[in-house]
Specification:
single chain, alpha+beta, Jelly Rolls, 2 domains, ten-stranded antiparallel β-sheet, nine-stranded antiparallel β-sheet, 7 helices
């Protein structure tokens, strides 16, 4: 007989409303899978692992709806939103297969391939470049690059009667997809294939969390396995039923709302492909916000229209950008990304253990936002600095009190570089307060505040010490330094303070934040640290300084 494995259910707060008793009874019966279950795929097929978790796009909050329901984000991202990478897979070059789940009545644009259709919508989303900015969610470990994809075409399947009633549970959808793939009706599953499954009018879908289409949710996406291969899929019910016409978008036409919902699920599947195997805030989740959900949830139903390469207009949903810190249609970065080597922001990914810090607490991990894995961490509690919210222009800082530091998981080792630091020295009198320093057996390289009014740079490899006047270090400021292979220039709040000539071809190796060999420490605050492994142009340097000065309201 066919082997079908059922993954243990797990929940992540996706249930936004309590399902009806009837739904729960149906769910309990439909998920009783066993050797004689009609939801089993063909006995000759590869073993299928059915999962009991998906991630859903919620119905927009309506008057009188339960207060726990997900809200409609009208025009911007919720405060504090940020996607964290947990180590799972992304879909690097999505190849979309549009699946029609049986016969019945569909919107004409769903079944058509002429003009503006769902087929052309998928094509434009993955090939036009409208989502090229998703490359900010590339990952270093494992190495994954999100690029443009392709549209494989539309396939109408004939589901087994046992999996095609008026109410269809997700286990039946997974089993039917597996059967159609194993039969060769649908293309074989790959790491890039994404099956976007559309349902005709009159079909109610219930996901494993008990959420009901057009009552609780608009759509969802999930993951299961055929043998060892992940299968990625999205579920798109007909939106002309129940609460969907008004709760799944505010576009002028039903089809535009259908386009928007499809884009929501497609981009979420790309950036969090293995959500079906959810086991908490850890791998195999990919990009996820523990408070707000996936990339589309943060911007739920914020729609916009773009013109495709075919000259037609398409309505899709905005998605969340970590770099822009908002819901966007396209990304104009406040700073260059080429050569970005290390990026620590106190307003992004500061943790105590597994807990994302939003209130005052000890910081054991400060995650690198450059994508290079140079996370700063400290396991010893007495050596951990403090996360302090709202300290600088309403934004948090990491506070070091003379005995704290954090070690970089991967050393920073640029030869040419541009470094930017926002913070302040809090010692009232001192010889120095360490910002970036050495550790372990690394050479004595450092950047520090010195004597209350100076910055000091050391590169042991070249035997060079550079001291620059920068003004009062005991107030918040943006300190930066640029080395192009022959000249080191210091800046304060974007203004050049000094230049010194020297030559070295050895790397400037930095191993720790806030200390010198676990001997000397910082007393002060850090809000942001940025290192490039190249000398930025003057225009680029000015753009980074403008970003920092605006963000932190610096002079």
């Amino acid at each position: 007989m066919s082997e079908l494995r059922v993954q243990t259910p797990s929940y992540v707060g996706c249930l936004r409303r309590t399902p009806t008793l009837a739904a729960l009874l149906c769910l309990g019966g439909c998920l009783e899978v066993g050797p004689q279950d009609p939801a089993l795929p063909d006995p000759s097929a590869n073993p299928v692992t059915i999962t009991n978790h998906v991630h859903a796009m919620p119905i927009r909050e309506r008057a009188g709806q339960d207060a726990s329901a997900a809200t409609f984000q009208a025009s911007s991202a919720p405060t504090g939103a940020h996607l964290t990478y947990y180590g799972g897979k992304v879909i690097q070059n999505a190849n979309v297969v549009q699946v029609l789940y049986g016969g019945g009545s569909y919107l004409p644009q769903i079944t058509s391939t002429a003009g503006v259709s769902m087929a052309s919508t998928y094509t434009q989303i993955v090939t036009s470049g409208v989502f090229d900015w998703l490359n900010e969610y590339n990952t270093a470990s494992p190495a994954q690059t999100i690029g443009r994809g392709s549209f494989a075409g539309m396939v109408q399947i004939a589901p087994a009667a046992a999996r095609n009633g008026s109410t269809i549970v997700d286990a039946s959808i997974q089993a039917e997809l597996a059967a159609q793939i194993n039969a060769g009706t649908l293309p074989a599953a790959t790491d890039n294939n994404l099956y976007m499954v559309h349902f005709p009018a009159g079909k109610t879908v219930i996901n494993p969390q008990g959420e009901i289409s057009c009552v609780d949710i608009c759509a969802y996406h999930g993951t299961f396995k055929i043998a060892a291969q992940n299968v990625y899929y999205g579920v798109l019910p007909d939106l002309n039923a129940g609460a969907c016409p008004t709760g799944c978008g505010a576009a002028p036409t039903l089809f535009q709302n259908q386009q928007s919902a499809a884009s929501h699920e497609l981009i979420e599947a790309i950036t969090d492909a293995e959500v079906g195997f959810y086991a908490g805030l850890q791998a195999p989740l990919a990009w996820y916000d523990g408070n707000n959900g996936e990339i589309g949830d943060i911007c739920n139903q914020q729609q916009f229209t773009f013109t495709g390469t075919d000259g037609n207009n398409y309505t899709i949903q905005k998605e969340f950008s970590n770099l822009q810190n908002d819901c966007i249609t396209s990304r104009t970065l406040p700073m260059p990304t080429s050569g970005l080597h290390l990026w620590l922001r106190a307003d992004a990914d500061v943790y105590n253990g597994a807990t994302l810090l939003t209130s005052t607490g000890l910081a054991s991990q400060w995650r690198d936002q450059s994508g290079n894995g140079r996370t700063a961490s400290m396991a010893t509690t007495t050596r951990q600095p403090t996360f302090v919210p709202g300290a600088l222009n309403g934004r948090p800082v990491i506070r070091f009190s003379g005995a704290q530091s954090m070690n970089l998981n991967v050393f920073s080792q640029p030869t040419l570089f541009s470094v930017f630091v926002v913070g302040k020295n809090s010692l009232t009198s001192e010889s120095f307060s360490m910002i970036l320093g050495p550790g372990g057996n690394s050479p004595n390289n450092q950047l520090r505040w010195n004597n209350g009014s100076q910055a000091l740079f050391v590169t042991q490899n070249a035997g060079t010490i550079v001291t620059s006047p920068i003004g009062n270090t005991r107030v918040y400021h943006a300190l930066s330094a640029r080395y192009d292979g022959s000249t080191m220039t210091f800046y304060r709040d974007g203004n050049a303070m000094s230049s010194t000539n020297f030559t070295t071809t050895a790397p400037w190796t930095i191993a720790s934040v806030g200390s010198w060999y676990s001997t000397y420490y910082m007393t002060g605050d850090l809000a942001e640290v940025i290192i490039y492994d190249r000398a930025l142009s003057e225009a680029e340097r000015a753009s980074v300084n403008a970003y920092l000065r605006s963000k932190y309201n610096l002079p």
